[in-house]
Amino acid sequence: MASPGSGFWSFGSEDGSGDPENPGTARAWCQVAQKFTGGIGNKLCALLYGDAEKPAESGGSQTPRAAARKAACACDQKPCSCSKADVNYAFLHATDLLPACDGERPTLAFLQDVMNILLQYVVKSFDRSTKVIDFHYPNELLQEYNWELADQPQNLEEILMHCQTTLKYAIKTGHPRYFNQLSTGLDMVGLAADWLTSTANTNMFTYEIAPVFVLLEYVTLKKMREIIGWPGGSGDGIFSPGGAISNMYAMMIARFKMFPEVKEKGMAAVPRLIAFTSEHSHFSLKKGAAALGIGTDSVILIKCDERGKMIPSDLERRILEAKQKGFVPFLVSATAGTTVYGAFDPLLAVADICKKYKIWMHVDAAWGGGLLMSRKHKWKLNGVERANSVTWNPHKMMGVPLQCSALLVREEGLMQNCNQMHASYLFQQDKHYDLSYDTGDKALQCGRHVDVFKLWLMWRAKGTTGFEAHVDKCLELAEYLYNIIKNREGYEMVFDGKPQHTNVCFWYIPPSLRTLEDNEERMSRLSKVAPVIKARMMEYGTTMVSYQPLGDKVNFFRMVISNPAATHQDIDFLIEEIERLGQDL
Known about the structure:
By secondary structure, the protein is an alpha/beta fold. It is about 40% helix and about 10% strand.
């Protein structure tokens, strides 16, 4: 197995340019470390690049493990330019790292080796000559490596190898030709923020243990509410573990608003509740209903038009039907950016209906909320300011690293009243600071990850105008794809008209199917085309794009773009690759 002085330092670098044994590289690392870490940077240089004691001679009293941990630097230069002392990970384990005695040097060396692995992976993620995926079937990966957990520890050399192996088979979601999911791309500032929050390793439930992060959540949620259009950014909100949980929060709060007694007495104390959402909405609405005891049968799916938008007249008809049966409509969830078509429900019309029947209006803008940052496209969410709650996932269209989802609520205090349990060991009422900043009791979770810092730091780095440019570019690329394929031989659009979001839905028709009549046999054969092309994409590793059926429509490609690294050339490549991989079908 390679030593850290060779294999680990030169991960992904064939010319040795990533090797800190190279004096120029060593100086560069030291300069960066000193600039951004101050005294720690000096220590890093002294410990990693200084004149270190050599391992004990054969027959000496020093054990290999002790020798591997010792370090010294006689260099007075700051930053130092000595050769990096050897750290032999084969003799070191996790117990030799901090907080172990004399653990500083091996800790810094180990973390810098991990960092080098990560940085090389980051660089490769943007290299179009590299694969998006090194695909192996599950049984192949299980047989090729021993993934089982053992009673005895492995040494740090093996741990570093596990890091390399894991990234070798990871999907490069930041690759410019990865179009498979709504969440793509890899933002450098967001990545740095994620590293920082993991280093801080704190919980979001009280100000006393997360003072800056709690304040940043307050500031950021207020700004997001202002952008939605609520006066002065008033209201409430929280960052949750994803859009599905944010939507469930909305359903829970809407139920509490109408029947506060449900908190103590449960569903037996309330009448049959009915929620309404479009037939193209996210499955999380039904999941939330199941989890809250409302039941999936109590989620009524409203018809959509040919573009995937909810039909308001059908919504009103189904509300009246439910009321005639003695049921209680309590929530309408409109969608701003559906998962497949990227459709935006007519929010103003939905808001009028909700007002007329006194029903909570929720907008699931997990995918489409990012368009609020664009002066060119935010009109697609006209009416969102009339919602009672909004789900907005910056980890989708805004490119914030996973996970980053917000639930925004127009009425302040409602979320707290719905969820608080007054745990006295956390939320003491006689603390010496403003208790309104102890936000944990309004969350379902106790342990809550710091998700806000990634968004906040990216916002500071890009500004609102930077997010606007990001959104506008991605929508322009989607329109570019649509304009190329709408009249191109071998392509059929799933619906007419240019895309509302970055979703472009289409069939690729191989030459063998182009002269067939539009009948059941043709549809049956066409349904197999997208899965085969997708499988070939993954096996070649060249690109990834999603497919699915919807309603009576057989499998079609759903292209989505949220990665600002993508270009017109990447869209051209995708088209050529689909044609190359599907010509013989």
